[in-house]
Design brief:
single chain, alpha+beta
Length: 97
């Protein structure tokens, strides 16, 4: 699926992550800003990539500002940003869960 608009989900509060999705044309490009990137960076990127793949998003620029979010929070924020970016907020894709 193609991203229709830039979308944001999440906050910069502790234990959260802020995900910004915008159009891209070179696959999934993730710019991760996290104090725990050295330890958990690959896992955070995997959760984001897997969630976007479930929505059929193959090209996107992702800006992720992590404040210690758990995987379930990362997935939820990525889902919310994806639905907003695709314009499908009124029809959530429950199969992704």
């Amino acid at each position: 699926m193609e991203i229709k608009q830039t979308a944001l989900a999440g906050t910069l509060e502790s234990s959260d992550i802020q995900i910004t999705l915008s159009q891209g044309n070179e696959g999934i490009q993730i710019d991760l800003d996290s104090s725990v990137e050295a330890l958990y960076g690959p896992q955070i990127k995997k959760v984001i990539t897997d969630t976007l793949a479930a929505y059929g998003i193959e090209n996107a620029k992702v800006k992720a500002v992590d404040k210690g979010a758990l995987d379930c929070v990362i997935k939820a924020r990525t889902m919310a940003a994806a639905q907003r970016a695709l314009g499908t907020v009124d029809k959530p894709n429950w199969e992704v869960l």
